[in-house]
């Protein structure tokens, strides 16, 4: 099966073509084509993602990335051909709010041979709705043009199964997943493939969002995670403690929920007390903040492990790109030799379309494929 996948949930525009083979429990994947553009530098001056700017950039970039992915896969072959009137009308109807994309696809359909694609998978939420709609509408219109089924994929499910791309292991159930990104912090229990129950989530800021907000307080660029980690590592290499003490919100509550708003506020008050925010001060605050986040995530996950006795632990999402956090979860997993730890490679941790293709294939093998060319984008789509 050859899957074309699209991801536009936030500020990354991504298009991939993945060849998927094997069974549900022994899948294998080969990346044929992959194109991704990050808008991070464009949003840096806002200190976060500006939704309408993200939408505009997705509209501008998705045709280029689509062509690049096809070219890498050897599926971009020039040939004059006709498209039916019904197809052209369908494309324009779907892309009525993105007429430039409609013009591109109609011209593309008349000049490029239809690629041998079995399925189109597209992120339909959660995320920024203006951004999501660009990918969803492009996928739907392409499905009409090529007469290929389109399936919606939950972005968080993509993060969950992203760890399967490089194999060779598959999940043993029950599986526990900690999904940590700029917009989400969720503990998810899965008793069987593609079945999810959220047992804990953030009540306010997501962990990645907290990183970005604290980085802004420290006058660091967006996205904040890598910059805070860099400062924290300087202290970590020289000593084990910081002169600052920050709270570990909801660390000892009976539930599995998180809260990072209070931690962020504590950083703000700490900075206000400092008359001179030197580089050393920033390093020590970054160090203590990262320790507070790590301790909170580790303890909540450990508590869930003790109660639910999972056989697999998945830690995925953009925040797991953090080296200290990765090492901390590897150490945690070593305490439970009966548990298989799954952490994606760094290039599959942040938002990408490869994980969307993986989810599409796993769904097809589970007979849970949702072929629906009337897909709706949802900014608050739940993982279920």
UniProtKB/TrEMBL annotation:
InterPro entries found in the cross-reference section: ATPase_NBD, Gcp-like_dom, KAE1/TsaD, TsaD
Keyword Methyltransferase: no
Signal peptide: none
A GO BP annotation: tRNA threonylcarbamoyladenosine modification
Keywords linked to the UniProt accession: Acyltransferase, Cytoplasm, Iron, Metal-binding, Transferase, tRNA processing
Highest taxon listed in the record's lineage: Bacteria
Cross-referenced NCBIfam families: gcp_kae1 (TIGR00329)
Name used for this protein in its record: tRNA N6-adenosine threonylcarbamoyltransferase
Species this protein is from: Candidatus Zambryskibacteria bacterium CG11_big_fil_rev_8_21_14_0_20_40_24
């Amino acid at each position: 099966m050859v899957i074309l996948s699209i991801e536009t949930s936030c500020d990354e525009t991504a298009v991939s073509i993945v060849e998927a083979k094997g069974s549900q429990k022994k899948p294998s994947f080969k990346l044929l084509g992959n194109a991704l553009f990050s808008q991070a530098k464009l949003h840096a001056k806002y200190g976060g993602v500006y939704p309408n700017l993200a939408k505009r950039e997705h509209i501008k970039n998705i045709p280029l990335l689509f062509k690049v992915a096809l070219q890498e896969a050897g599926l971009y072959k020039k040939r004059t051909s006709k498209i039916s009137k019904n197809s052209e009308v369908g494309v324009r109807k779907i892309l009525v709010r993105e007429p430039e994309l409609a013009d591109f696809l109609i011209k593309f359909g008349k000049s490029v041979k239809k690629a041998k694609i079995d399925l189109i998978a597209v992120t339909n939420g959660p995320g920024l709705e203006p951004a999501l709609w660009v990918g969803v509408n492009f996928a739907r219109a392409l499905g009409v043009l090529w007469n290929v089924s389109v399936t919606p994929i939950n972005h968080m499910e993509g993060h969950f199964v992203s760890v399967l791309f490089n194999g060779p292991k598959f999940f043993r159930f029950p599986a526990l997943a900690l999904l940590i990104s700029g917009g989400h912090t969720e503990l998810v229990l899965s008793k069987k493939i593609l079945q999810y129950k959220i047992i804990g989530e953030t009540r306010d800021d997501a962990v990645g969002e907290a990183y970005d907000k604290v980085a802004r307080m420290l006058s660091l660029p967006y996205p904040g995670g890598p910059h805070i980690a860099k400062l924290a590592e300087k202290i970590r290499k020289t000593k084990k403690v910081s002169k600052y003490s920050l709270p570990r919100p909801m660390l000892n509550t009976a539930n599995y929920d998180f809260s990072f708003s209070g931690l962020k506020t504590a950083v703000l008050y700490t900075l206000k007390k400092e008359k001179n925010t030197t580089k050393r001060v920033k390093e020590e605050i970054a160090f203590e903040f990262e320790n507070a986040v790590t301790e909170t995530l580790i303890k909540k996950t450990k508590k869930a492990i003790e109660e639910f006795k999972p056989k697999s632990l998945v830690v995925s999402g953009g925040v797991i790109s953090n080296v200290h956090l990765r090492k901390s979860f590897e150490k945690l997993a070593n305490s439970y030799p009966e548990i298989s730890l799954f952490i994606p490679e760094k290039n599959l941790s942040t938002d990408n379309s490869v994980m969307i293709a993986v989810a599409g294939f796993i769904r097809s093998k589970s007979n849970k494929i949702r072929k629906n060319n009337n897909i709706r984008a949802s900014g608050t789509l739940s993982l279920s």
